Amino acid sequence: MIATVWRVTGVAFSLLILLFAALLHGATPGQVAFLNSPVGDLTIGFAARTDDLTVLLLAVVGVIATCVQVYSLGYLQERPASYHALVTLFTAAMVTVVISDSLFFLLIGWEVMGACSYLLIGHYWERRDARSGAVKAFLMTRFADVGFLFGIFVLGVGAHTFRISELDPARISPGVLTTGALLLLVGVIGKSAQVPLQTWLPDAMPGPSPVSALIHAATMVAAGVFLIARLYTVFSASQTTLTVLAIVACVTMLFAALCASAAVEVKRVLAWSTVSQLAIMFSALSLGTAGGRHAALFHLVTHAAFKGLLFLCAGVLLHQVGSAALVVLRRYTRRGRLRKALRVTFVTMTVGLAALAGVPGFAGFFSKDTVIEAAWERAHDGSAIGWVVLVSVCLTAALTAFYCVRLWLWVFFRTPALAGGVDAFEEGNAELDDPDTSKLCDAPWVMLAPLVLLAVAAIALGYADGVHLNWVIGLISTALVVLGAFPAYSLWRRGADPRPVVLEREFGVDPAYHGAVVVPVRWLAKLTVAGDRDVVGAYVRAAGRAGTLASQGFRRLQTGNAQTYLTAAVIGVVALAVLAGVIGS
């Protein structure tokens, strides 16, 4: 009964967000403040605002959240009440971030999202990988949020206001502005899994697939892009911050794309893809132009559609087959069984991968071209950042096409005989050579309907803003797609899936962090425990033991013999007299 109530509540709340966005569309922008408290020269309180950016993000959050809630009705059976309650709270936290016009009000939604993500990633708490992934996500994002909190104080005190709409860079000294923007950027990097805090997002994949879709498509990781877009006047006024953002974004997009090219699990490929695509949005924002901001938001919207679609499709594979690992899925793809048995999933996932790869005609093609065009215009003006962003995005586009085609071919099509580890795996598991596929079928329509809706969006959103296509850039991006897709197809035809050790181990970042952070912290913890136990505790125990021994000694003096007491008194008097005589002489 409780689970049913929360399911209905979750779907209704998501639809309410959509209705709210529809009602606000075209309305006059405005702000409202409440619960204000004066603190010296500052006023601390809450405020909300409505404008075009608010409506846009509310629509994105409402659509993705509705699809996730409906999809979850057929997907999740374990602890549904707590799951739907947390998803609803998670969605509400993102709505709080979107409508906030107060830095402190935004901080509440920002932190509630972090807490909900910890609980949702660890939904299958009986699994060790789910528990460790949840803790890792919580610790890394909380570490970054320390900088975010200090950034709020620096900007608020420097501008004498915590209202976002009243933050005027001209009223803030350059040093304070740069410091505050960089501190906020630390929080954004952690929340959006950018280098060097990128490792938590791929390890969050043991959570339910609908949660992955919600986190990756419309909430949490997308909140970082939204925050910079909301405070764009502040960030664009600090060239140092934009330069740091460009460097982080360009390194991240290439790093994550290379990791995705070697990953062997469907959800892990998509997770690294999310990190890379977010970096493309940040690179557009780092250009510091209105065109860059528009390109970033356009790509954010299209990415929400096709990445939410892809994670829900991965959830169907996990739900119907039992594993999202490519090495296990290959037992079904020897004869293209998944493509034939899961027809709706195959078609919709093909649409999602085509949009992600930037195939012409799909939404990702138009939004990615908008980013390339904005970078080209900035580079044409002589900006070094523009050239770096342009080259990085083009290389990432080719790598994206490579891992999308690789994933599509290996999962859904008849694969040639493989050499090495995969063959050994299948030879050692003879029962996997000809699995029983009589029960293998597509998911129920309560799960497929959101896929169809998002697949339509992954195509149609490219035309929502009108087709303003630069044909030269369009031809270049198409050539990049072909350049990335051809090697993936060639390797698949030859039955080869080489994964360089450095890529398979994801550049060894996690072991490096383990050696640089985890090991020293553990030794420090052991040292602290030893110091508390053997130094501080030793003094405390010694003081207690001394008191015990003293009390035992005094107790022995209480013999009850009057002659002994008199003798001791006489000896004491004589000793005092002798001492007085010595001192007097």
Helical residue percent band: over 70%
Mean pLDDT: 86
Structural class: mainly alpha
Question: Measured on Cα atoms, how large is the radius of gyration?
Answer: 31 Å
β-strand percent reads under 5%
The tally of strands reads 2
Note the run of SSEs as H and E. HEEHHHHHHHHHHHHHHHHHHHHHH
Poorly predicted ranges (pLDDT <50, ≥5 residues)? 324-329, 419-436
- Which overall shape is indicated by the principal axes computed on the Cα atoms? elongated
Major sheet characteristics: 2 strands, antiparallel
N- to C-terminal separation? 97 Å
With helices defined by DSSP (H or I, 4 residues minimum), what is the helix count?
23
Strand order of the largest sheet: 1-2
InterPro entries: NADHpl_OxRdtase_5_subgr, ND/Mrp_TM, NU5C-like, Proton_antipo_N
Organism: Kribbella hippodromi
Keywords: Membrane, Transmembrane, Transmembrane helix
Subcellular location: Endomembrane system; Membrane
Explained architecture:
The chain has 585 residues and is mostly helical. Among the domains are: 238-504, no CATH class; 512-540. It has 23 helices and two strands. A two-stranded antiparallel ribbon has the order 1-2. Strand 1 (30-39) and strand 2 form a beta hairpin. Helix 11 (266-285) runs antiparallel to helix 17, helix 12 (290-321) runs antiparallel to helix 19 (445-460) and helix 16 runs antiparallel to helix 17 (384-412). It is elongated.
Overview features:
585 residues; mainly alpha; two-stranded antiparallel ribbon; 23 helices; 74% helix; ND/Mrp_TM; transmembrane helix; transmembrane; membrane; Proton_antipo_N
